[in-house]
Specification:
The protein has 172 residues and is mainly α. The protein is built from 6 helices and no strands. The chain is elongated and about 125 Å long.
Length: 172
Amino acid sequence: KAAIKEREARGKALREKKIADAKAAEEKKKADAEEKRRAVAFAVKAAKEKEIEDVKAAEEKKKALEKAGYDFISASNLYNSGHFELAFNKFKQSARGGSYQAQEQLAKMFENGLGTDQDYKAALEWYEEAYKLNPLVTNNKVNSLKEKIEEEKNRKDKASNSPAFQKKADKP
């Protein structure tokens, strides 16, 4: 009888342990599910916040491009009426706002010395900026200006090596 009672007690303890283990496993499953739910909720919230930021950034970029377009039109009107210095400043605003047309026009003005001093290097920089946004339009200009800059450098080098330049350089 004692052995039977002892087996029954061990069996009961084993059943209780299995029940407790099952409850613990169920609680862990619930905790894991809650943790996953919170992680997903956090990810969804972060994604929504990022989407809102992206929309705001896109709206700001759109406004900047609209302003750049307005500045480009205004600059074009000034340019066409012969007000090159004013046009140059407006084209610069528009170019900085992201208008490749203004970047290209600004480069042309630097290249030809309209509304500003002639500066092939500045022209090349603006053509390269325009090229980033519209490679088809400005690729030939970029290559052409690189050649002009090289030719100008060669002319200066030849002039600095000429006998007349040397005589001037020798004078105190």
